[in-house]
Fold this sequence. Notes:
The chain is α+β, with helices and mostly antiparallel strands. The chain has a single domain, classed as Alpha-Beta Plaits, CATH 3.30.70.
Amino acid sequence: MRNAEKHNITGWVRNTSDGDVETVISGDRLAVEKMIDIIKKGPPWASVTDIKTVRSSEDEEEYRNFRIRY
């Protein structure tokens, strides 16, 4: 959440029932690339083993902020 706000990223993030994390991030290209790099590393207490899908779309819904979905 803090990194998204720091890099002017909008969208959302949520934990799934199987332990994965799902997110949609939106912003300018460089900010999105930086956020993907941050996600690949994960926080110190997490173990990121794989990023399954990264895609770019001009049709993506516009978001006003970044939020955590439950």
